[in-house]
Amino acid sequence: MGGEQTILTFASTHHVLRADELLSEAGVAHEVVPKPRTITADCGVAVALAPGLREQAVQALDAGGLPPEGVYTHFPPQAVCKEEPA
User: Fold this and answer.
1) Deepest of 37, 39, 45, 65, by most Cβ within 10 A of its Cβ?
2) The pairing of beta strand 31-34 with beta strand 45-49
3) Confidence tier at 36 by pLDDT (50, 70, 90)
4) CA angle at residue 38 from 6 to 34, to 5 degrees?
5) In a 10 Å sphere around its CB, with 0-12 CB exposed, 13-18 middle and 19+ buried, how is residue 7 labelled?
6) Number of domains present in the structure of the chain
7) Residues spanned by the domain of 27
């Protein structure tokens, strides 16, 4: 996945793995990736997806009872801009 990405962060690796399951079940294309260094979060892994899938992903996670702790727009390899979870 290259270019701009939406990065979703969670409290733990267990939550990332559950998010992976929920997003797969919802048919949302995504990847589990190492958390970019510019993002401050306790967990070292995150979920990356295309920016156009952000709303669909957050809705699927909310419906599964696992809203992301943080939603970021990542512009590799430069800066990260934090956004509020939807």
Assistant:
1) 45
2) antiparallel
3) confident
4) 65
5) buried
6) 1
7) 5-83
